[in-house]
Design a protein that fits this description.
Layout: H1 4-50, E1 69-71, E2 78-80
Antiparallel strand pairs: 1-2
Length: 82
């Protein structure tokens, strides 16, 4: 019976943590929606500017090219191309 007040405090702290967690999740969800909207707007502006159609949710394909680093024969050092 002496620890009943500890259980009450723990329950109150748990309820407070759950409320804070819910509020945090709501704010994160709102931020994610805003970010997605901004990215969609940016994609439209860029595609309009470049004259290319948007990707429609598809991820761009990686382009495999030549290695951008070459070893200098004379010094043995590496040079990176921009």
């Amino acid at each position: 019976m002496e620890q009943v007040h500890l259980l009450t405090e723990a329950r109150t702290a748990y309820q407070e943590a759950m409320a804070v967690g819910t509020e945090l999740r709501n704010r994160l969800d709102a931020g994610e929606r805003t970010l997605r909207d901004l990215m969609t707007q940016l994609e439209r502006v860029v595609s309009d500017h470049l004259g290319e159609p948007p990707l429609d949710g598809e991820k761009p394909e990686l382009v495999k090219g030549e290695n951008t680093k070459t070893k200098r024969q004379t010094t043995g050092t590496w040079k990176a191309f921009p």
